[in-house]
Amino acid sequence: MAEAFMIALRGYDMAQVDALLQQADDALASGSETLRSTARRAIQDAQFRQRLRGYARYQVDQALRDRLQKLT
């Protein structure tokens, strides 16, 4: 599921965010508890690089909270 995040002057690295959200979405679609557990751990441990013109941090943080809830 593609997210439409605002671009911020100092935001999260877009490629890292996209990859993590894709991993979570793939785990949700698979129905595999192992993949879901791995995705939950990846979200909980995520530390994104900050970039000029990256994704708005508060929006990404909310999207990750939503994914965690769905993965539980």
UniProtKB/TrEMBL annotation:
Organism: Mangrovihabitans endophyticus
InterPro entries for this protein: DivIVA_domain (IPR019933)
Top-level lineage group: Bacteria
Name by which UniProt lists this protein: DivIVA domain-containing protein
